[in-house]
Amino acid sequence: MARSLSEIRERSRERARLRAAARSELKNTAYEIFIGALSILSIVNLVLVYVIAGDNAVELVLSVMNALFSAIFLGDFIYRISTAPSAGRYFFRGFGWADLLASLPFPQFKILRLFRLLRVFRLLRDLGPRTVWATLIHDRANSALMTLLLMGVLVLQFGSITILAVEEHADGANITTASDALWYTLVTISTVGYGDQYPVTNAGRLIGALIIVVGVGIFGTFTGYLANLFLGPGRGGAEAAETDAALADPGDEQSDAATAGAPAAETAQPSIARHAAKGVAAGAAAGAVNAGVSAAAATVEGGADVPPVAAADEMPADPGETAERLRALLAQSEEAMAEMRRLLAGATP
């Protein structure tokens, strides 16, 4: 029984260690899924190149997409090696060398993109499906951004291939080459629509309509994301605003609302004086409470034989004297408030 418990503890520790290592290597869950999906698509393109051998137009589209993937993977390699806790460990033990070779524009090394796909699968497996799903739901902004980028890549590739296959041999077609198809798809996704390239068949128009709908969704959401990123309040500013709202005094809000129609110069002075008076009164009350606590502590420590004079320096034993002292403190706070009002009135031009 003891052995089984020790084995369970050891396994749980190993799982915790693997999850900690995965989190340290994991850049962002949505980003890792995006890179994994691009790796799968790039490997599919390698297979398509051999399947459709002889169709030069489609091969050119796939070559352009593979060049785009190479640029993305090279940027991913630079990002990982620059942010890795140990660049040497990532390069030699984390298959960084395979990421570098796979990002180069050489067909012989593109098969090494399998290592990137395996690493993404291992990281996500170590985290667990629940953790991955919870992270995607919590980080909705990055998840939406990565989803839009992936949709844009898919539409650009398969939209170009499909519109080329439909329009290439049609009568009166002007989308007859790979560059025409890529240009038409890119212009349509971006909702620019120059009109220099357009489909002439019903099937081509249907494909163009689908590309337009997807493009509007992609660029509309992407524009909103950028606007929120650059124009939205920062996290620090939002936290400060929440803190100020939580610490706001309801009495202050009512008084501010009551004086909302008055000029700022007239309402600023009472507000400052009111806060100053509250501070003075709070300090006086705190001093009185501390004095009472000190007197009680002195009485308890000395026992019944300790005379009340032992705490007379801090708090009078007579209730009448205590009340008189509190009245004096309140009078001092009122005098301080009146003095601050006079100073503010003299400083106002």
Automatic annotation (TrEMBL):
Broad class of the protein's primary localization: membrane
GO biological process, one term: action potential
Annotated region (Disordered), positions in chain: 241-269
Keywords: Ion channel, Ion transport, Membrane, Potassium, Potassium channel, Potassium transport, Transmembrane, Transmembrane helix, Transport, Voltage-gated channel
Membrane association type: Multi-pass membrane protein
Pfam family, one: Ion_trans
Protein name: Potassium channel family protein
Organism: Microbacterium sp. LWS13-1.2
